Request: fold
Amino acid sequence: MGTVVDAYCISEGSHKETNHYVISIKGSGIRYKPGDSLGFYPTNNNNLVKETIRKIGAKKRTIIETKETGKITLENALLHRFTIHRAGKKFLSAVVNKMHKGKEKDELISVLEDRDKTDKHLFTRDCIDILNECPVHFNPQEFINTLSPITPRLYSISSSPKTHPGEVHLTIAIVKYNNFDRDRFGLATGHLANSIEVNQTKIPVYIQPTKEFILPKDKSKDIIMIGPGTGIAPFRAFIEHRKETGASGKNWLFFGEVNQESTFFYNNEWADYMEHGHLDKLTTAFSRDQEQKIYVQHRLLSNGKEIWKWLENGAYFYVCGDKQYMAKDVHSALIEIAKKEGKMKKADAEKFINKTLMKDQHRYLRDVY
Ligand SMILES: Cc1cc2nc3c(=O)[nH]c(=O)nc-3n(C[C@H](O)[C@H](O)[C@H](O)COP(=O)(O)OP(=O)(O)OC[C@H]3O[C@@H](n4cnc5c(N)ncnc54)[C@H](O)[C@@H]3O)c2cc1C
Ligand SMILES: NC(=O)c1ccc[n+]([C@@H]2O[C@H](COP(=O)([O-])OP(=O)(O)OC[C@H]3O[C@@H](n4cnc5c(N)ncnc54)[C@H](OP(=O)(O)O)[C@@H]3O)[C@@H](O)[C@H]2O)c1
Reply:
């Protein structure tokens, strides 16, 4: 268990909410290294649980039983064990099975037959939304049998244990949106944003250690870190750790966010590190401070010559953050740099990045999600 001992917003004035959390792990026996992630078992929102129990017309103390949980109350099952903030396919199918024949049932059957349509339907709905649209009856046990278990969420740790003994720091973007006139939150980020009382609430956490996403053993090696958005998290830990351990290698950080004014996370810390020689280069890409989007990969390309020099000199290249778009674009930029600055053919550049740098030398490391 950990206790949240500090929590504050680091995106003041932005439409996005990104928060810094400090979790005390004193006395828990938990140990970690820079690059590790923290796993967190979230709890469903109290009001959502109450509303869901009301919606199925049940009583919170009713006992349900599953293989995984044994006998527990419906309330406990919905608070701690099962996902209700987003409906799953199993639940939708069970609802459709209970519906009377007719146009509405046929429409939902065709939704269930098409994966994209099912995903789209479920993207915006939780169990309450579906029961509002299709008012069928479930007894508590039947209802529980249609739900998926809550899975833990992982967060890249943004602190070095040497700088913050007994603490784990996290940098978390809160997932929030509004559908059908109801405000919604991601399960874990909603829990952290809305249900935490600093110095009071204990949260179930564990360390997910990394074998690959680690600092170079040779402290004289240079490192290049690409960390837009919450991807910055492990690099705060890396720089703290390199400072504490007197690493002589140079540190180059690329950071990207929407606006310099509101989302330049840890700006003061970077300025201080630059002043005292713990951060050698800081390159930023604020995507919405001008008409045309500027992303970290654009900054990489415009610094291609120097990036190539660092890589030739044995630098490690780290990427953290969005997997779907950013990591792919950064990967392409790196191949482009190898082509242009390394004067390689496309196939050779790809081989150099994908095989030599990544697989053989383990100098291109990613923590993307
Ligand atoms: C190794 C690893 C490290 C990570 N590190 C970090 C980190 O340092 N910081 C960080 O913030 N996150 C990090 N994440 C992501 C994190 O684990 C969670 O996935 C994230 O916080 C969302 O969790 P949640 O429970 O709040 O949201 P969930 O309840 O899981 O919901 C998230 C989902 O909500 C959906 N959604 C988003 N917007 C809308 C919308 N408008 N309408 C409908 N649905 C929508 C999306 O499908 C999204 O996938 C990391 C993930 C991994 C795997
Ligand atoms: N599935 C998605 O659509 C999607 C997209 C982004 C993030 N995410 C997830 O949302 C969570 C939180 O994200 P976050 O708040 O840390 O930051 P983020 O949403 O990743 O944004 C950080 C910065 O990256 C920019 N960006 C957007 N597309 C990019 C690309 N292709 N290449 C490089 N930079 C790009 C953003 O610009 P703009 O916003 O101005 O474009 C912003 O300036 C993460 O879990 C991430 O994986 C999901």
Observations:
- The chain has 15 helices and 16 strands.
- The first strand starts at residue 2 and ends at 9.
